[in-house]
Amino acid sequence: MSNEAPWDRLPHDPAGFFELAGDFDLKALKRSYGKLIRQFKPETHPQEFQRIRQAYETLESQLRYGVAQRLVSDRNQAWTELLQAAPVSSSQSAAASTTSNRTSKNHFHTAPTQPHVVYKLLKAQSDRRPQDYWLLAALADLTEPDDPMMFLKWLLTGLQQHPEDPGLQQLCMHYLNQVLATELAVKVLPAMAKSLPEHTFFRITENYWLRLLRDQPIEQTVKLFSQCDKLLKHGQVGPRLAFLIRFLRAAMWYAQESWLKEQMEFLSQHGAQMPPMLARELDFLSLINEYRMKLPAAMPATEQKVVHMIRDYCTLSWREGMASVSRCFDELSRDVTGLMESFQVKPVERYHLMLQICHAIVGDFSDQMGQPAFTSSEKVVARHAEAAVVDMTESGEAVFERLGWKRWRMMVIPYVALVAFAIVCGNWFIPQQFSFISIVTAIVLVQIVYFAWLKPFVLAKRWQVKIEELLMVEYGKAWRQRLLRYVQSCHAPSAVIVEQLGLAGRNLNSGSMVNLIHSLAYNDAAIYLLTFSQNLVR
Question: Which residues are within 8 A (CB) of 392 and not within 5 positions of it... i.e. 6 or more apart?
Fold first, then answer.
């Protein structure tokens, strides 16, 4: 991709803008998108970034809804010669000017000076192209000012005649997302459900539904969705699946469990029909749903921050959601004490679900914001790893000494007690002339009982359970804080951090201890959250 982006291809040819040819996939789109946003960062080039983002969202939506790229490219040709001057000026026509179009040149040039004449001629015209409907919508502001809905009505009329036209679809999507008030949804959406094919309806209205979830009560939105669903002419199940996955990701935080369960069951029943792209999104949705149901009523403050971040990511607009992700991980990176206090070192199912969700969010954040995977070099990480291993080895000697003493007490005290019991019984209950023989016999029996049964089958199993508890306690006392300091000093993925720590352990003859610490840290959610934070915070 050249250093200067081909801005002249926007908004009519987003695939050409990203230099994508043929039936590209999401991976190719993200790769091209990432190259551009690393050059045009939102902090330094906000307008350019916004145009890139809109083009990306257009193509991403087409991929999720299975829109054939070749068909879109062919139909975009009719919109590639748009005259840059808009025929009218108003808030609604400004929305229309964001999509390129190629209408009758005579009508287009005459419209600014004779809007009523052109509007009348186009209304009387029986065979209209998609571009004619755009011009009718734009002129309706001037010619029929008493009906503010005429702009949208003309676009919907055009979509009824040309339901697959990408220009009209983009115009309608932009109008719904940027102009139409959510209070009008109860009138507009049922009318669209009656007149449009199912796949066109879901794709065009998806972001508007997400606005409704944010701006009005969930009960009202769910009721309206059920009403529209009954009006739709159901055909292929794919578009409905693509819509529901995004819709439920936001709705599940507020909707009634009975309705939510019904929708999740519908998705599960049709999981085999999903393309890989939607299957991954469904897996993420299922993770969110399972995690949400396991949340307790009361949580520590730091865990509440993470829950709020996940909810914001699912429910807010793209920009607001990413801002919440960045803000949360920035706070976590500076609050190691809060992480240690909020997340206990033990296997908790909701912690594992939370970490899987955070891992997916961090990956999406890096893709969407164009950030590299990490900044620290392996040499820097290796230096910090060696220092951490030296410190943890010193404290580890004391740990193993304490554990050895506790194991000795657990194994020896029962043996001594059995021997003492045998001697006492021999002295009290056996005649004196047989006491010595009885005591020896009792001690032999004690040896057999202890070494053949008690130690291997009882004490060893109890020690195995006890050692896990003791190691968790010792990990929290001796190693956890030092390990968190090591992670905090490295801007690196968890795989690099673990690899360098293992290498340092082997080089310093502490490999077994490092492996033990790593196995204990597996259940430490604070370690993983801090790693995610370090990857995002620069």
Answer: 478, 479, 482, 483, 510, 513, 514, 517
Q: One-letter amino acid identity for 314?
A: C
Q: Residues of the chain with pLDDT > 70: what percent?
A: 87
DSSP character for 183? G
Cβ contacts of 529 within 8 Å, gap of 6 or more: 306, 332, 339, 343, 355, 358
137-171 pLDDT per residue, tens: 888 888 888 888 899 999 999 998 988 888 888 88
Q: Which long-range contacts (CB under 8 A, 24 or more apart) does 60-68 make?
A: 60/26, 60/29, 61/203, 61/206, 63/25, 63/26, 63/29, 63/277, 64/242, 64/277, 64/278, 64/281, 65/199, 65/202, 65/203, 65/238, 65/239, 65/242, 66/238, 66/239, 66/242, 66/275, 67/203, 68/23
Is residue 528 a contact partner of residue 355, using CB atoms and an 8 Å limit?
A: yes
pLDDT band at 220 (very low <50, low <70, confident <90, very high): very high
Closest CA to 259 of 271, 247, 270: 247
Residue 453 CA to residue 299 CA, distance in Å, equals 45
At 427, is the pLDDT very low, low, confident or very high (cuts 50, 70, 90)?
Answer: low
The CA R_g of the chain, rounded to the nearest whole Å, is: 33
Strands in 465-518 per DSSP E = none
Q: Comparing C-alpha atoms, which of 149, 118, 153 is closest to residue 135?
A: 118
Indicate the average pLDDT of the chain.
84
Contact 451, 357 (CB under 8 A): no
Taking Cα atoms as reference points, which of 163, 168, 160 lies closest to residue 135?
168
- Per-residue pLDDT band at 80 (split at 50, 70, 90): low
Q: What is the pLDDT of residues 434-449, one digit of tens each?
A: 566 777 777 788 888 8
Q: Which of 370, 365, 368, 255 is nearest to 310 (CA)?
A: 365
Q: Is the dihedral of CA 50, 56, 60, 62 positive or negative?
A: positive
pTM: 0.82
